[in-house]
């Protein structure tokens, strides 16, 4: 893309301020004159733009200082990436008219290459210790499996996911709702600086711009479109993380949720997603099974294997026929196990050699170490 076209796109972003989901009105008018609202203003307002909206855009366009913003970005180690550039992630085109006119990118790696194998991990800012732990565990697990962790750089779940990926020596991307040279929140200045060194910091807004509530909502569509799937760790009913998840669903991306206590308001939004089309996940392996290549299957979950699980069916039935307390005669054991007395004796001596039972006079009883695994409550069957 030429310098004039690039400046026109930047003017489009700065004039619009990313206030509407269709953040391309001015950028699409860059062919009129020099670019953006400046050039379009000489030929009349763009189709579908109200007079009041157009007046506001032209007023903002009159204050643009694109060359200065490019210099500021370069000083911060950032660059501007637009559709058509080699580094542009093609999956963002799925947003249609809501596609960003361009993105400011801070960091050395290629945004397009990193976005090919990326997963978003989002959730509540004021998360619980459980939510922070799960976010960090997911971030580390995904990074160890070669996936890029994408989040919003905020407190809570976002920060936990970023730290987990960084701690595992992996890749992570922070998508901000402000300029990439202005870390927000301020308490995460060191974290975002580290992400810029080891990963990428991305944003729609030009250097120096501050975040607003509407910008956070619009930022979420970029996170959803950039990644293969979105995992929500903790989110209340009105959480912005749910906006990301629903946008991902609308785009045909995978949507996943980590369940929490049924009594927790911070998990209520996640549970609502799980009642719909979202998939329950509990670790990184289950996430990769969903978003990864065919054949990447999460390990089968099962309880611990105890020694009696390895017994042959006949021996297991005889063992189960012994009372939890006291001894029993061979005839009674055989009757309870549904076998003959001779077969019961054979099985009892097998069990004795394995340490499960012992002879007590004319009867048989369980050994002390056998009682807890067979009858955990210490009571009868």
TrEMBL record:
Residue numbers spanned by region Disordered: 18-47
Superkingdom: Bacteria
Biased composition (Gly residues): 36-46
GO BP term, pick one: DNA-mediated transformation
Pfam families per UniProt: DNA_processg_A (PF02481)
Entry-linked SUPFAM superfamilies: MCP/YpsA-like (SSF102405)
Protein name (record): DNA processing protein DprA
Organism: Streptomyces silvensis
């Amino acid at each position: 893309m030429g310098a004039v076209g690039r400046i026109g796109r930047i003017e489009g972003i700065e004039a619009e301020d990313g206030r509407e989901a269709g953040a391309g009105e001015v950028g699409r008018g860059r062919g009129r004159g020099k670019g953006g609202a400046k050039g379009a203003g000489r030929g009349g307002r763009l189709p579908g733009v109200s007079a009041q909206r157009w007046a506001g855009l032209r007023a903002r366009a009159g204050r643009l200082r694109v060359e200065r913003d490019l210099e500021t970005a370069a000083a911060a180690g950032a660059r501007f990436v637009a559709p058509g550039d080699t580094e542009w992630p093609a999956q963002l085109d799925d947003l249609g008219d809501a596609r960003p006119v361009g993105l400011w990118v801070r960091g050395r790696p290629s945004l397009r290459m990193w976005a090919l194998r990326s997963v978003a991990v989002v959730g509540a800012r004021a998360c619980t210790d459980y939510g922070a732990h799960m976010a960090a565990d997911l971030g580390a697990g995904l990074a160890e499996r070669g996936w890029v962790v994408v989040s919003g750089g905020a407190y809570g779940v976002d920060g936990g996911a970023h730290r987990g990926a960084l701690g595992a020596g992996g890749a992570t991307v922070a998508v901000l709702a402000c300029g990439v040279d202005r870390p927000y929140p301020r308490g995460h200045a060191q974290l975002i600086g580290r992400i810029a060194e080891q990963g990428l910091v991305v944003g729609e807004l030009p250097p120096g711009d501050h975040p607003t509530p509407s910008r956070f909502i619009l930022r979420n569509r970029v996170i959803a479109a950039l990644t293969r799937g979105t995992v929500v760790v903790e989110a209340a009913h009105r959480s912005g993380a749910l906006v990301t998840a629903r946008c991902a669903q609308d785009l045909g991306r995978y949507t996943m949720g980590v369940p929490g206590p049924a009594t927790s308001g911070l998990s209520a939004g996640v549970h609502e997603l799980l009642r719909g089309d979202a998939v329950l996940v509990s670790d990184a392996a289950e996430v990769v099974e969903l978003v990864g290549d065919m054949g990447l299957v999460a390990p089968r979950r099962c309880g611990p294997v105890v020694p009696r699980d390895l017994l042959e069916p006949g021996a297991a039935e005889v063992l189960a026929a012994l009372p939890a307390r006291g001894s029993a005669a061979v005839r009674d054991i055989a009757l309870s196990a549904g076998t003959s007395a001779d077969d019961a004796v054979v099985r009892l001596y097998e069990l004795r050699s394995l340490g499960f039972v012992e002879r007590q006079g004319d009867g048989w009883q369980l050994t002390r170490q056998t009682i807890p695994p067979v009858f955990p409550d210490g009571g009868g069957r």
